Amino acid sequence: MSVLVWLLIPVAGALVAGVWSMWATRRGTSAGGVADVAGVQGYEAFRAAMERAPADG
Q1: How far apart are CA 10 and CA 56, in angstroms?
Q2: pTM above threshold 0.90
Q3: What is the pLDDT along the chain (57 residues), one digit of tens a residue?
Q4: Residue 38: phi, psi to the nearest 5?
């Protein structure tokens, strides 16, 4: 019986890790999250700035 208890520890840990990873990677845009549109626009502005020639040479 004690073997089953020791086996339950990593199984419970894996379940907790799975739940935590789903919670940590959820897509929240309502409470301070960044919407996809704003993120894409910011990336496009950054990429356009990096593609321009430098001003000093």
Answers
A1: 59
A2: no
A3: 889 999 999 999 999 999 999 988 876 655 555 567 778 898 999 999 998 877 765
A4: -65, -35
